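Whether sequence alone determines local backbone shape is best considered at the level of individual chains. The sequence in question and its structure tokens are set out directly beneath this paragraph.

***
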Amino acid sequence: MDRDIPEYYYLFGRPDEGELQVKVKLEKSKSWVLETSMNYNDFHKLINRKTGRLHDLMRFDDHPFPIRRYEFDPEKNTMCIVCKGRDQLSQDQIKNLTEESSS
């Protein structure tokens, strides 16, 4: 697996120990991924070490998904990561993501 595509379930640690609630929404879907939490000092984990930019891909159970946006609400201490759903991707895009994540 490409170490620069983080696995959501291992990114922040225990779901109940952070001060910021993190949700993942699949765009154009009613599906949500298991909610977790993170600490504010964990924001650096959202940065790709190679590019210095926010990750634009994230893995969920080893399946890569493109990230569309990060929605952060400091008043509510919440962040929502909005991903493009697999049903929005062509078979070629899914194949490329899978190959990219296993390289």
The chain has one domain: 8-96.
